[in-house]
Fold AAA domain-containing protein.
Amino acid sequence: MRLGFYNLQGGTGKTTVAINLAYYLSEKAKTIYIDCDLYAGTSGILFGYENDPHNLNSYLSGNSSLDEVIHTYNNLAIIPSDVSPDAFNADMDFERFAEMVDILEETYDIIIFDLPPNITEGNLLFSSIDKKLINKMIIVGEDSIPGIVNTLKTQELLTAIGIGVTGTIINKYRGIVDFEDILDNVIALLPYDKKVEEQWALNKPVVEIKSKFGRELIYLAEDLAHVYIEKDLAAMRALKLAKELMGLAEDEE
């Protein structure tokens, strides 16, 4: 399953949500997290790979192999982006991204795409739109008037380009905006929590830290695993098995 996290607006906490959900889900299924923000990604900092030369940028530039750019944190596989100024100097081949995703799907049950907050050339969602790389999208909005406005714009954009929205997460929730009559399909309210900042200092996901945010995010991960993900995984595994059996039958002929 290919699950993306996106919002046109930056600063909503999308990376924190995507990383922590990916980390928690990796305990239940083979999961890989991809930091698709080629110019301003931060996952390398959280997981301690900021000085590693092998990342998504170097892979798309042809300077690293796929094996070299896949790092690990416990059960979670991670492809970070380049956090250095060199990210702006790379000449990247976006076709390699689509090929990479197809290869990863042979190994991983869940691919998490953490997408940058823009619609420019560097956004891999739009660079590969014809490939339909993502079959489910979660919008991460924040509890503010501009945040809700941009979440609505994001919903409209994804609908226009034919990408289905699984639901919307309202992050940094403090009861500021009454959005119940404005937004459809809100699947979680994640509270504003100062402890979220600790994950960057401790180099570990916030779900490993005792916090209100971590607790609510675990509830969300469990819901996603049961309601949205298990059915899809069962269908994909059945399809894969069917293809393998067909291949065996053809070999016998």
